[in-house]
Input
Amino acid sequence: MGSQPCAFIKQKTIMFLRFLMILFLCSKPQESFICSKKSLMNSTVLSYKTSSNIPPLETLNLDGYLRFDNIEYAAKDFGNRFSYLPSAVVYPNSVSDIASIIKHVFNMGSSSNITVAARGHGHSLQGQSQAHQGIVINMESLKGPEMWIHTGDDGEPPYVDVSGGELWINVLHETLKYGFAPKSWTDYLHLTVGGTLSNAGVSGQAFRHGPQISNVFQLEVVTGKGDVITCSEQQNADLFYGVLGGLGQFGIITRARISLERAPKMVRWIRVLYSDFSKFSNDQEHLISSRNSFDYIEGFVNINRTDLLKNWRSSFNPKDPLQASQIISDGRTLYCLEIAKYFNPEEFDIMNKKTEELLSELSYIPSTVFLSEVPYVDFLDRVHASEKKLRAKGLWEVPHPWINLLVPKGKMFEFAQEVFGNILTDNSNGPILIYPVNKSK
Output
């Protein structure tokens, strides 16, 4: 039940299953890189001064610095279920700092039990960003070259070059200055680029663009030997495909070149409810198969939640307030289809007409259309707004058990009956998100 997120692989020979079931609490785990064959939990400390051939770790000439005290934060992650205290934390100021650390550990030889973990924003779930009595590399400390945006004026596709330790929210704000934004996102943007690219990076745009790892042109990677290598589909392709979605086991991502598209200014954000799972899943499949569909398609399961609609009304307007007020969710399992259409203000009428057409093709409960129109940035950063509310109540830094499942289309109905109809009938403490995914992406 504590499995890590599935690694999506971009190679054409691998085809995705139709439905991606993700049960989680708001974010994606960060990348990890383990430099020995020992497991993280079984690794033991090896004194950095035991070998006469290897200089002490403290003697390395770094642009950044090492810390051996006040490093307790590196023994905690978003999962809040495992805690492994490292012996040292590295605050790199350059890629060469990371390469030096990795090379130092590699040169200690196979007898060393030292492990190294790259820690981004610490959103791993089972200690992947921790290193028991080993070395944690604080990736957010990495000071690479400035973020660089290529707008595609020369005919080449637009992209952004960015440090692996940069947060996606900062990438969004910087690219928007040029009228662009990455195509694919996670639901939570306060994560590092290297962290989500080491996992997959999935949100409601994945049905169209694929996960974040399907939208990368080039990477800079520090390998397990401490070599700094540039890789892409054309150059060092095995490393490129291994690192993307590789859970940090093939190297540490220190820089990425990410595909961009023209960014909209506004989003029409819609939620509709279903009491029948087959209608819900059929509508999801219909929408991701349509040529001109919504721009974001996701969903979640509501099991015996009495306050669902009350909470929505703070930010969503019911299309029919009178009918919506009569909806009672007590003791019922409901399925919410969450969809969004991007637009610019001058395109409002066109967007409105297209939205109505798409909604008319669906089989949701008619009185349960809830609408909101928000700026593009607010929509993408929506989970952070919830985070601030939860932090204020002391409900953010709690244990977050998490399971990700790929469920094939042919088994989805049976799965839903057993899990939502039987297992979770009485109690469900976390969001259950359902992402429909096209195999071709």
Remarks:
- The two ends are 27 Å apart (CA to CA).
- The chain is about 25% helix and 25% strand.
- Residues 170 and 190 are 8 Å apart (CA to CA).
- The longest strand covers residues 252-262.
